[in-house]
Amino acid sequence: MKETVKVGVLFSQTGSMAVTETAHINGVLLACEEINEGGGIRGRQIEPILMNPEGDDRKYAEMATDLLVNYGVKTIFGCCLSTSRKAVLPLIERFDGVLFYPSVYEGFEYSPNVIYGGAVPNQIVPPLLEYVFEHHGRSISLIGSDTLYAREINRIVKEFLSESGGDVVAEVYLPFSAETGEIRAAIAQCGVDQTNAVLSTMVGGDSVALYDLYAESGLREKSVPIASLTTTETELMKVGRGARSGHISIASYFASVETPQNPTFVSAFQEKYGVNAGPSVYSEVGYSLVHFYANAARLNGKVDTRSVLQALSGSVFKAPGGDLSIDMDTNHFTLRPHIGLSRTDGTFDVVWDSPKVAAPDPYLVAYDRSITTRVAG
């Protein structure tokens, strides 16, 4: 029997981020299963080695080292929060592995040893703000988890608002596992009569709590929506049914997007995880990155870091959300953003599809911060 191809799967299965990172895991493991059923990588089965860092950045670093040194892994699919990615990054570079990172993040980073699979600000911030400006107004409140991602995204959002005639009504950051009273106080700071929309960068279980408590607020009574860069079907299904509908999210994938390959993916996902476990962008990107990696490794049958990275150049994968291609100058992906309106059943109606794919610009070098309202929907 041929030797397996060991890959690391490094996501938290417990703690405040478990709800989101489990979605990453589900996508990764489904792809591994499909690849193995199709003959693996030139006959070699993928062997995922799953580790649980429990939301602890120190454990992310320790477990990444364990995978790279003791297990002989060259490739890790892992990390969600930017702090965990930054904890793992120097180890990936030191031991010459490759990290496939499946989460949205704040940009302003490059490593030759990291493949950044999630959207960066230029791909999702401008269209979301355009949509909110067009349909709701330009007075925005910002509520986020106290993370690097939230603070950097909101710094960028404030630049766009400043150059586009918008204003920030409130800006609040909450700790992980925030108390109910803390979340209620944050919502109250938004101002019922001043805020047109609340832009949320809350993550994980705290995002679920925000939506549940928001439903009790005066903002909800006035139909002021939450507009989110981080809330997906994964979190929405955990929100109370009466608090789910009427909110806005932007992502490179929703389970309801119409592509030829998406029905097959949704069906396979639900067959493996249950009919109520619909996929989200977190599972779709994890799934797509594994297939993208396997396609590259099949080209020459080698799974060392240099061979895989070289083979990625020019590769395309028909992902559930659309064709996926990588910009090897930045190691980020060209993506097509979509805007969804949340439903009571925990899914999204796609109300806007980008007419073209958005190339990655992780350092925002080519972006005018002035936004006009061009997004339809």
Automatic annotation (TrEMBL):
The lineage of its organism: Bacteria, Pseudomonadati, Pseudomonadota, Alphaproteobacteria, Rhodobacterales. GO terms for molecular function: amide binding. This is Aliphatic amidase expression-regulating protein AmiC. InterPro entries: AmiC_PBP1 (IPR039570), Leu_Ile_Val-bd (IPR000709), Peripla_BP_I (IPR028082). One of its GO terms (biological process) is amino acid transport.
